[in-house]
Design brief:
216 residues; mainly alpha; Topoisomerase I, Chain A, domain 4; 10 helices; 56% helix
Length: 216
């Protein structure tokens, strides 16, 4: 199985193909693509003063015939129907290979791959949960901090220092991509008044495992 692009990229290309790019502004395109992208948070970056410029000034003026470039209703959108969240691509590949296995040896192999991946992910989650539990001392607050509810980052120093601690003490983020999925918890902690020094101290006591790599 091959994954050729993310939903945001495809929606951007669909919009560019169907719109009159010399009339459409970057701002309008951003709003359209953000509305159509259902699987991730679309944000603006860079020099926002460029938003009034025309898309065609960046992609050229040649226009394709607007045949089948959407927009599509969610229920019939081929992009959304086949999309997989980027962090779940490894698991999706393992599950598909398991389904396609044509003998017991292959089935056992891919079943074990799925189990190992899920076990490793659970371990990452358990380390963050233990850190939060020690810091908060409260079961309900731990669940709230672990929830995937995103806060606006205001305390950048806390966020950066605590994330560095998570990377340096617990899981190298470059070598364990799944550990990135726990960073929202650090945002929650920092925005609820917990400090980076508390996180760092607790991480030292919780993350006593040896160096681990390859947790996807």
């Amino acid at each position: 199985m091959t994954y050729l692009g993310d939903v945001f990229s495809i929606k951007w290309m669909e919009d560019t193909d169907r719109e009159a790019v010399m009339n459409e502004t970057l701002e309008k395109q951003f709003e359209i693509v953000r509305k159509e992208t259902k699987t991730s948070h679309v944000l603006q970056w860079g020099e926002r003063s460029l938003s009034k410029m025309k898309v065609g000034e960046f992609v050229g003026t040649k226009q394709s015939p607007p045949s089948s470039y959407g927009p599509f209703e969610d229920i019939s959108d081929p992009c959304l129907e086949s999309s997989v969240a980027a962090p779940d691509v490894p698991l999706s590949i393992f599950l598909r290979n398991k389904e396609d296995a044509d003998d017991l040896i292959g089935l056992d192999f891919w079943t074990n791959q799925v189990k190992e991946l899920q076990k490793n992910r659970t371990f990452v989650e358990s380390r963050m949960a233990e850190i939060v539990k020690v810091m908060t001392g409260d079961k309900d607050l731990t669940a709230e901090m672990m929830s995937d509810r995103h806060h606006v980052i205001r305390d950048y120093n806390c966020h950066q220092q605590a994330t560095n601690a998570w990377n340096d003490i617990c899981f190298d983020l470059a070598l364990n991509p799944y550990a990135m999925r726990m960073v929202h918890t650090i945002v929650n902690l920092c925005e609820h008044g917990f400090s980076a020094s508390e996180f760092t101290t607790t991480a030292h006591s919780v993350c006593t495992h040896h160096g681990i790599t390859g947790i996807q």
